[in-house]
Amino acid sequence: MKTIAIASGKGGTGKTTLSTNLSALWAEKRHVTLLDLDVEEPNSGLFLNGTLVKQEIIEKFIPVWNPDVCQLCGKCQEVCEFNAVMKLGTDIMVFPELCHGCYACSDLCPNSALPMAARPMGELSHYRIGKLDFIEGRLAVGEEQAVPAIKKVKEYQKQELPDADLVIMDSPPGTSCPVIEAVKDVDFVILITEPTPFGLHDLKLAVETVRGLEKEMAVVINRDGIGDDGVESYCLEEGIRIPARIPQDRGMAKTYSKGKLIYPSHPAMKEELIRLIDFLEAL
Amino acid sequence: MKILFTAKGTTWDDQMDPRFGRADYLLVFDEKGEELTVVDNREQSEQEHGAGPRTAQKVVDVKPDVVITGNGPGGNASRALEAATLEMYVGAGGMSIKEAYEAFKAGKLAKA
Amino acid sequence: MKEIVVLSGKGGTGKTSLTASFALLAGSSAVIADCDVDASDMHLLLAPEVEQEEMFYSGKEAVIDSDACISCNRCLEVCHFDAVETDGTLYEINPVNCEGCSYCERVCPVDAITMKPSLAGDWYVSKIRSGARMVHARLGIGAENSGKLVARVKNEAKDIASRDSKALVLVDGSPGIGCPVVSSLSGADYIVIVTEPTVSGLHDLKRLRELIVKFRLPSGCIINKADLNTGYCDEIVKFLEHEEMDMLGTLPYDERITAAMVQGKSILEEPYSDSETAGKIREIWKKIQFKFGLNGE
Question: What is the predicted ipTM?
Answer without folding.
Answer: 0.82
